[in-house]
Amino acid sequence: MSQTVALGPDVPVKEAADGAVVKSNTLLNQAKQLQQDVQGNANNMALLKDRVKAAKDKTKDLAKGIDITMATLHAIPNDTAARVATTKAVAAEANATALDVLERLGNLNLQIQGLQKNYGHLEETVNAANQLIQDPEKNIHAAGAKVKDLEDEADRLLEKLQPIRMLQDNLRRNISQIQELISQARKQANSIKVSVSSGGDCLRSYRPEIRKGRYNTIILHVKTTTADNLLFYLGSEQYVDFLALEMRKGKMNFLWDVGSGVGRVEYSQLTIHDGHWHRIEASRKGLTGTVAVVPLEGPNAGMMPTPASADAPSSFTILDVDQNAYLFVGGLFGTIKKAEAVRSSMFSGCIGETFLDGKPIGLWNYRERLGDCKGCVISPQKSDAEGTVQLDGEGYAAVARPTRWNPNVSTVTFKFRTFSSDALLMYLATQDMKDFMSLELLEGKVKVNFDLGSGLGSASSTQRHNDGHWKSLTMSRNKRQATVTVVDIDSGEEERIVAASQGSAMGLNLRENQRIYFGGLPTNGNYRPEVSLKRYAGCLRDIEVSRTPYNLLSSADYTGVTKGCSVENLHIVSFSKPGFMELRGQSLDVASEMSLSFSTLNDTGTLLLAVGGSAPVSQQARNLNFYNNKRKRRQSGEPYLSVMLNQGDVEVRLFTGTHTPRMVTRRLEQGILHDGREHSLRIERLPGRSFAVQVDEETKKEMGLPNDQPVVFQRVFLGGIPTEVEQASNRVNVPFKGCIWNLMVNSVLSDFSQPLSFVNADIGRCPSLAPVPPPPPPLLPETTAPAVVTPGPMRSTPAAVPVGPSPASSEPGPETDVCASAVVPSALDQAHQFGLSRNSHMSFSFDDTKVRERLILEFDLRTTESSGLVLYMARINHADFVTIQIKEGQVCLGYDLGHGNISGCVPFSINDGNWHKIRVNRQKQRAVLSVDSKYMKQLISPKKADLLDVVGVVYVGGLPQNYSCRRIGPILHSLNGCVRGFTMHGSAVSSQVENLSLDMETPSSRHLVGRCFVSTEPGTYFQGTGYMKAVASYRVGQDVSISLDFRTSRSDGILLAVSNKDRDGLGLELVQGKLQFHVDNGAGLVTAEVTPQGEGFCDGHWHSVTALKTRHRLELRVDGAQSRAESDNPKANTCETNDPIYVGGYPESKTNLTTLIH
């Protein structure tokens, strides 16, 4: 029996099975197709990811390219800023688009995971992604095109700037050429030796070349038949100081006043109104004046004079004058009110050569003239060898090439006498400068350079020839070989130098129209780079080139050249680089004194060091070793006198040979000693076992001594000390940079032309270091009404009372004038601000043996600066050192133990304005630098040296101004930041670590270190009791503009003030909440005033001020508010000041326009 199986009522099982098979095959085929589709989409997605990645890379490349382009575009003018901004916007859009693509890709990956359900949307999404990828590519191309446009624009602008730069260069050259011509004209006028004749109506004023000091000389030649005459008058513009030579009944009188009363001395031995030439010699040494008359013609000619002397009233000793003083030779303008002690004001006769402090006064190089002036017969001159000339160090002479010129053979001979260390003696060159020859002095040694067109030949002498004695120089060249012979004329000692040029050229092809220069070169011109451009100061004679003699005074082109030679009796020396000058020994007995004058721009340096002398008998044998330079240390019995500038203070140390050295430190009560101006120092040995030190005319300071025995110094040095003395006496040489003059011991002037030895000392010359004073007003009136110009009050006279209420009544008290809405800044205790100047610093002394093996430094630091010096200590020669610096915002440590330096930085920026703890732990060769105990850098010094050998002085915050340090790179400026909690520990060899106890409240020295505040912002804070001398000397003139911002907690106070002794000047001040701008041009006070709105200026907010002075008109603008004022006298439109600008207040003794003091 058969059975039939069914799946349903109508479908047999077999048919159902067949249908299932077909369906299964269909599903299998669909699954395979879907698998292929998934694989294809996966491949498409991989390609899509690659394209997105490429777009991202292009975006990064674009960002880098834009950064580079932006750095280039910083030099482009501001009118391209809009295009740069557009480019940055396009780049930002491209970057944002790429980021959007990445975000969409994330969503796309999610869609792939559900591919079976969302496959229908996949193709649309891929198309959208492709479209998005194309957008950044377009933007990238657009941005690149913009950058290219900007580059083209920059090139176009630079091309337009090129003619302007050429015009600026030409203008600079023209100005230099004009200045050179003016200088030459003045020197030519000074060289005219024709005497000036006056019948009583010839008056001339001159520009005095003079330095303040305790010593002055006047030499004057006169011929007259009038018994009463004023020959010479020099008067201060500000004070009662003056010098005068006056004839009274035919007898010569010398009068002077240096601030404490008139001194007068008469030469009664001779009357000089006899119609013959006489030479008048007058000098002043402190309070003592001397005068002598030397007859040059007539029956008394050849008579040796006996000088007459007298003293002025005791007190002041410095003649306080400058280049704006009144100087007259032969009469005085009626507009000048002379000293009452001088009787005459006119002169009749002839005035010949005149000298002030050894410098000639060119009688025809006058400042102003009045009346009829004529020439007269030249005064008798000292005979000099024909052709002997003297160059002043600022000139030169040019001569034509000899007619007979052999290119293959050259000879140059001349004699010279100089103290110059570096200077050009002779120079000649062809137009293209391929052929040239020069003779020069380099560190006192003769150097020859020459090139025949194929290579340089050069050689130098081994000996120095700048000792002030006559030398004979002969240079002979035969083709490529040159021989220079230098002979000392006095001793006959000879030195020979041989040099040969390179290459094959044999001849020096100098053309007939080309010049040969002696003593220097014109300022404008192209010269061989091997040649020194420093001009020669000294004497020349017997000049021959190729056997052709030359007299430089017969040349058509010369300047700064005068007839004769005088290198004796020199009293000034300058040091432009480390050096010294040694003089003969001196003694300092009881009731004796020593004085000198100096000028410098550096706050540290050795002015004078005197060492050696008599000692107890038991020590004399040992002391002989010092003079033989064999000693290693200074004996305790060796007396010495040390005069130094140390951080702006004068330090005088005197050791008599027993007990301990005694030191006096002096600082100016007002101003600084390293301002380039003239300053004087006086040391007195007083009775009763003491000595006194006086700087300028300020109060003396006395110090006791252990005995009253005479002190003898065998060696005296100025400006520094030689190496052998430094080593033998265990002293540190601190070189002086500047000028020293008029060294006097017991009124005997030291002659610098007779030094025992010197190095890098420019004897007899000194450049002006002080700021150039403004030109003085005309001495002659511009109108018919006579204006009387009176000298200012003497220095002891109190200042005039200011306009308005007295300072005592107007100055607000600390409690009554504080605004409720203002917040006074809070200062941090025991935190110190550095960086107020490049050389802001503190120094601390310590026992150097206690850091040899180990050194630990700790302190807190706050700064926003990216670079600066934090700490430095070193050996004398800087072979060993330790330094901490900020470089690119990171703390860096460097040190050297004598065999190589090592340095490294902690890779963490600390210039964020927050406090950070810095710690250095060095033990032998290994050191660890840490910041905030988190970030560290470990260093190990090279080789085997493991002990630190430094001088026991550490500088924090910066270095002194003249401190030389070349081993730690260019970052030598003081760090602008705050330091607190500075501690230093160390240990000697095989010893325990100990605290060196350095206290930042009591450093060994400090320079321009301020206080730190809790919160900081740009600006300067005044407490209401002080002031700042912002500018040392300023001339207001006709027009001036002042802009500043201020914020205050007071309703009264001075913002800015400048005025002269006559109260001409200007001032900005707050008075009862109103801002006032005062100006006085000499015709009365004019004031512009702005009254604030609302809470007023005393609201604790910043306010912007602009004050304008335009001749006699004033304008004051404050935060948009404006006020104008003008003087009733339009002719009074110039404010003549040569005085400091004070900010925040002014000294109580200073005359000012403001009603307040602080």
From TrEMBL:
Task: Name residues in a coiled coil.
Answer: 105-188
Q: Which UniProt keywords apply?
A: Coiled coil, Disulfide bond
Compositionally biased intervals (Low complexity): 796-816
Check the record and name the SUPFAM superfamilies matching this protein: Concanavalin A-like lectins/glucanases
Q: Per the record, which residues fall in region Disordered? A: 795-817, 1120-1140
Q: Which residues form the Laminin G domain?
A: 193-376, 386-565, 567-766, 831-1012, 1017-1158
Disulphide bridges: 739-766
Tell me the InterPro entries matching this sequence.
Answer: ConA-like_dom_sf, Laminin_dom_II, Laminin_G, Neurexin-related_CASP
Q: What is this protein called?
A: Laminin G domain-containing protein
Give the domain of life: Eukaryota
Q: Which Pfam families match?
A: Laminin_G_1, Laminin_G_2, Laminin_II
Tell me, which GO biological process terms does this entry list? Answer: cell adhesion
